[in-house]
Write a structure and sequence with these properties.
Layout lengths: L5 E5 L2 H4 L3 E5 L2 E5 L5 E5 L5 E5 L7 H14 L5 E4 L19 E5 L6 E3 L1 E4 L2 E4 L2 E2 L5 E4 L2 E3 L3 E4 L4 E4 L8 E5 L2 E7 L5 E6 L2 E6 L1 E4 L3
Parallel strand pairs: 1-6
Antiparallel strand pairs: 2-5, 3-4, 5-20, 6-17, 7-16, 8-15, 9-10, 11-17, 12-13, 12-16, 14-15, 17-20, 18-19
Length: 207
């Protein structure tokens, strides 16, 4: 993923809580004269969208949202968003282990592997792991020596390439790279000390 126009900061959780949204697919459906239909998936993977309106109601949180929006200059700069429903290599609330996800197999020469997550037979690339959360294992044995994690690209780099046939696995917590999907934030003052954001969409950035 290009790091251009991306700020490595996370949307405050006080604003993120209450966000509504999730994965979106794009499917073309053609109705045939027989009544049957043909369905074609136009995207190889999902793209996620959320709506932050309603997630911030206290004036202090609304002010944080506006400050964050202004610092990103609307849609210009991306940022990190923590989707607590789907933010790790294991089930929500569980601690990741180094054997959660198989991310590759050694060939004796390849030193770099990409973090991924499986949804059945669908593979999702993980671009923004949380610093300090990534655990790595070779053939089921956790290792930290000679391994570095790039939290801006989701790459795992070994000083020495794993041997041929070695199973590389990892566990992690991750953020989603997103941007605001509007150059405008509209708020409403509902009463003394309380207000709400009317519409604040954010959308996943794909690599």
């Amino acid at each position: 993923m290009s790091l251009a126009n991306f700020h490595d900061v996370t949307l405050p959780m006080s604003i993120a809580f209450g966000a509504q949204g999730g994965p979106e697919r794009r499917t073309e459906i053609v109705a045939l004269a027989s009544g049957r239909e043909v369905r074609n998936g136009l995207w190889s993977g999902s793209r996620r969208r959320w709506e932050l309106a309603g997630s911030a109601s206290k004036l202090g949180d609304l002010n944080k949202l506006i400050e964050f929006f202004e610092a990103r200059r609307g849609r210009l700069h991306g940022f990190r968003f923590r989707d607590i429903i789907d933010d790790r290599s294991t089930a929500p609330g569980e601690m990741p282990s180094a054997t959660d996800v198989v991310i590759g197999e050694g060939d004796g020469s390849k030193p770099v592997f990409e973090l991924i997550k499986y949804y059945g037979d669908t593979i999702r690339r993980i671009w923004k792991p949380v610093s300090g959360s990534v655990r790595v294992a070779i053939d089921g044995v956790e290792t930290a020596e000679g391994v570095s994690i790039n939290t801006n690209s989701g790459e795992v780099r070994f000083v020495s390439a794993p041997s041929i046939g070695a199973v590389i696995s990892a566990g992690f917590v991750f953020d989603v790279p997103v941007r605001f999907d509007s150059d405008r934030i509209e708020t409403s003052l509902d009463g003394f000390g309380a207000g709400r954001a009317v519409q604040v969409p954010i959308i996943e950035l794909l690599g």
